[in-house]
Structures are given as C-alpha cells and as structure tokens.
Amino acid sequence: MKKLWKIRSEIPNESVLGSLFSARQLAREEDIKQFLDPEYSDHHDPYLLKDMRSAVTRIEKAILKQEQITVYADYDADAVTAAAVLLRFFAAMGYAKANYYIPDRFTEGYGMNAEAVQTLFEQGTKLIITVDCGINAFESAHRASELGIDVIITDHHQLTPDPSLVGAVGIPTAVAVVNPHRRDDNYPFKHLTGVGVAFKLVQALVPILHSTSYKLQAGFEKWFLDLVAIGTVADCQSLLGENRILVKWGLYVLAKTRWIGLKKLMKLAGIAKSEMDTYHIGFVIAPRINAAGRMEHADTALRLLLTDDEMEAETLAQKLEALNQARQMQTERILSEAREQVMLYSNHKILLAAGEGWHKGIVGLVAGKLTEEFARPVLVLEKSAEEATGSARSVGSFNIMEAISQSKDILVRYGGHPQAAGFTLRTEHIETFRKNLLDYAEDSLSEDDLSPVLYYDAEINLSQVTDEFVEFIARFEPTGIGNPKPRFKISDLIVKSVKALGNEGKHLRINVNHSSPSREEAGPPEPFGRGMGEVMGCIGFNLGYWADKLKANDRIDIICEPQWNEWNGERKIQLKIVDLQISTSLAGGARGSPGKGWGEIAI
After folding, report:
1. Which of 58, 89, 208, 303 is deepest in the core (most CB within 10 A)?
2. pTM above the 0.85 mark?
3. Is the distance from CB of 455 to CB of 19 less than 8 angstroms?
4. Measured distance CA(560)–CA(485) in Å, rounded
C-alpha cells in the first residue's frame, strides 16, 4: 500500500536542524544542549514523586524489623526488569527477606489479585511492593489491608475509576502510591515506565542506606541502568526527557553489564560483541524476555536476571531462546491464518479475526502486525467453546477503547488505551461484537486515519549528506518512540545501478546521484557539502521487488536514513531507504536547497 509522505514538524523551519529539533519539541537552546549531551546528573529528584518519602520510610522500617517483603510484578519485560531492579538492590545490601510474585498470564491475568494476596499473607509477607501494576487494584489492596499487609504501589499506568466511588477516579488503599500520573503529583516528567518508577525508588533509597550500616556505595544504582534501558525501550515509551537520560546511560552500562544472565542471553542471540543500541534491546533482548510470559511464565526471565550462577544462567538463557523461537513460529502461523480471514473483508474500516487454538500470549503481536499491513484497526481473538479473549491495535487518532466499549453489555471484561486494548466476551457474541465495531467505525473512523503515513524530518539534497552530517545525526541516539531516527526526503535522484540482494532477491541495492547543475543553478556551496554529481550507495531492506521496476537513469524520490556502512575495514556513508517512489518532479526540480544549510543553527 502506497504511503503518504508527510514532514514531521508542523512548524516551518529555515534549517534542517530546526526541523529536527522542533519535531522533538525542543525549542530552547538549553533543551537542545541537554538533548544532544544528556548527563546522568540531569535526572529529576525522586522525592518530587508524590508519596516517595512514605515509600522509603516504610521500606526502611521493614528492613530494620527484618520483615518479609514481596515484590509483586506483571509478566512483561517492563515489569520483569522493574522487579529485577528492586530485588538486585535488596540483594546488594544483603537483605535476604525479599522475594517476588508474578501472576500467571493464563490463569490469573494482569495485575495484583486478591487470591495472590491471601497466599502471600499465608507465606508471611508483611509488605508488598508492586511494580508496573497496582494502580487499579482496589479490591486487592483493600484485602491486603484487611490482612494487615502494607502495600506500596509503584506504577506508571493511567488511573482508572474506583468501583466504590461510582465512576470517580481514585487510588487504592496503600501506604504509598508512587505514580507520576496521579492528579496530585507534580513530577516534571510523566512518561516514566514501570521500571523507571522502580528505579526512582531505588534512587531515593541508596543515599539513605549509604549512610547506615549497610554502606552502599554512593551512586551504586547506576549499575541497574541496563535493566532500566531494557524495560523502557520494551514498553515503547517516549525516549525524550528523563527516559532519554536513563536509556542513553543504560546502553553504556549494558555494554559492560554485571549480570551473568544478560551476558549469556546476548551471547546466545549473537550480539555480545555488538555496540548496544535501542534496536538490540527492542528487537533482540526484549522479545526473548517477553517470550517467557507470553509462552509459559515470566518467572524464567526474572530468574535469568537475578542469578549469579553461570550454569543456571546458561540453562535459563537457552530456555528463553527456545521459547522465543517457539513464539516466532506460532506468531507466523497465527498471522497467516488471521490474514486469510481479514483478506475477505479488507475493504472494511475495522478488521477482526478469530481462531481456535491461537495462543493468548501472541494475539496482540498478530494484531499489531496486521494493523501495520492493512492500515486499519485490527482485533484478533482466541476463541474456545464458551469464551473468546482478544487484543486490539488501532491506527491514527481512532480510539479503539471507545470502539470496544460500545459493546460493554456483552463483554465479560475489557481494558486498555486508545491505541491498544484487551477484552473477553462469550464466543456466541463475536458476530454481534463485529457488527457493533463496524457500525462505530463507519461513523468515527476517517479516511485520514486509514491512510498509512510515513513521516520525515526535512527535505535535503544529496550534497548535504556529508561525514559531518552523519556524525551529527548519530548524536540523536538513542532513538525510538518520541525521538524517531532522523529521516529525510531526497527528491529527483538519478539511478546509476540496480541490484537485488539476499535470499530470493529480498533486498535492494542501488547507486544514485544528482545530476550536476550548472554553476548558475548551483548557487553558493552549502556548508560541508559534497559534489552533487557524486554517486552514493543505498540499501533498501525488503524492497527487492523494486529491482525489476528500476533501470539506469530513472529518477526517484526516497525517504532515507543516512548511516555508516563498515565493510572490510572501509567506512563510507550509505542511505538506508525506508520508502521510494518514481519521481514526479521535473528534472533538476528538487536540487535547490530546502532552506539554510544544516549547520546554520545555534546549539
């Protein structure tokens, strides 16, 4: 499906860098400097979080009285790394009376449940610290209070209505509720992940325990930043602000991690000697950690992050590798079967697929892939004889939660966010549910929402892609949500050669240049510019089908990411093509500068 190309920043800019910064909401010079060179010391005071002091005081009391502490976690990578941060912290200070509880995804579901609280009471737990969950655990927190168990909630999810307050938003009964989304919380950064909030708790605890008999080294918490980076990238939160600080320095720590389990995992995945970046976390490390909770139980992943035994680490890493391979195989199978279903209705504004025997831990992944493929909201359900459980993913500004809520009278349960949600209903109601979705989508889903859009930061000329330029945009790392990898549109390129690469010609290799303009056309040289007639190599992954469509001297427009290509000791610039189109501009029509040179901005 052809994508609509749009410039990312809505604010007109006279320079390439101006466009890059405004797209990331960076206007002040001090913000730009902090963005380009974030220091660990730039993080916010953890005590700015509401209830942080109460949380620290209660944990100190538990330590002094040698009470049983249980870290209660969810089952995804954000929660697992959050639990690892707290448990590693307790282990470092020699506190042995801390354990953990992770609910079973398939039998217990998400979040803290009253049955688990009862079990923990019987096991002697006096303090529960939740990570990445708990903000909507009204019933469970109340049950803990009845049993005499104190609860500290650390979470980052949006607050939901308290059933006892008839729709009003409240917080569960707890000694402390640490969540930047509390209405009475003035913390300056609202996009912390579950592991981010847990890390802020450790940041607050280390200085206090440094001055006590435990004698933790000041700044000891920095060794947990690799875990923080993994959870933050895995949870797809903004990589601006404080998250940028945590992830940048987390990648630095990840390269020299102390945790033997992580070392074994990266070695098995073939990235142990790689320069760590957000790609390695998001597409290599996090899927393996998530595979445990998706396929069996997240306990396997957490034990990997906690073990100091080399043989156990090797065994657990191999198990995660196997679980991830099984997850990939099942994802492909379910994706294929679900695709066959939605192809029959691909003209509908919203798509739904349901199948028996589809793995509940994978339907969300499949929904996401189909959403990208068809540029429509997709719901994928695993159905049994009585109930169907599904996940939904949305597009554009369409609120999938509102769409699902139109069927609340036939839903057993549902919850989520405007872009992603989960739900359960009786199997007999699936067709009614589908009709309700289609009726709602017909009135609420615009054509703009259904048009796949590819955003770029600025339009440039080939002459601007210099060594200095590529070095500079490398400083935008770590990239991800909120801070995407810089992308540029280059128009009216002349194809010099074309070649298909890889198995079955899956990828595209082309060489391009701009025709050299006359001296009058060219105007004054641009800063650090190269000759416009110079040939540059391009690589297009999964674009091999273009090899049969292009020939020498064709003119094309591309969206690309300039990068370094290192091969056999040689380092040169190449353009990673994200998308390409046959140029519709007149020959030479795009050769003028799209504004001032990229370097003409104060930073």
Report:
1. 89
2. yes
3. no
4. 10
pLDDT in the model for residue 246: 97
The token pair at 322 is 């196997």
DSSP 348: S
Q: Give the pLDDT of residue 530.
A: 54
Position 340 pLDDT exceeds 60: yes
Burial 11-20 (b: 16+ CB within 10 A, else e): eebebbbbbb
Q: Is the dihedral of CA 546, 547, 548, 549 positive or negative?
A: positive
Domains of the chain, earliest start first: 45-323 (3.90.1640.30), 344-450 (3.10.310.30), 457-582 (2.40.50.460)
Residues 328-334, mean pLDDT to the nearest whole number? 94
Q: How many CB atoms lie within 10 A of CB 301?
A: 31
DSSP output for 97-165: -EEEE---TTTT-SS--HHHHHHHHHTTEEEEEEES--TT-HHHHHHHHHTT-EEEEE--SPP-B-GGG
* Residues composing the chain: 603
3-state secondary structure string, 239-263?
A: CCHHHHHHHHHHHHHHCCCCCHHHH
Inter-residue contact 75 to 213 (CB < 8 Å): no
Flag whether pLDDT at 158 surpasses 70: yes
Q: 423 in the Ramachandran plot: left (φ > 0), alpha (ψ -120 to 50) or beta?
A: beta
Which residues 6+ apart lie within 8 Å of 525 measured at CB? none
3-state secondary structure of 213: coil
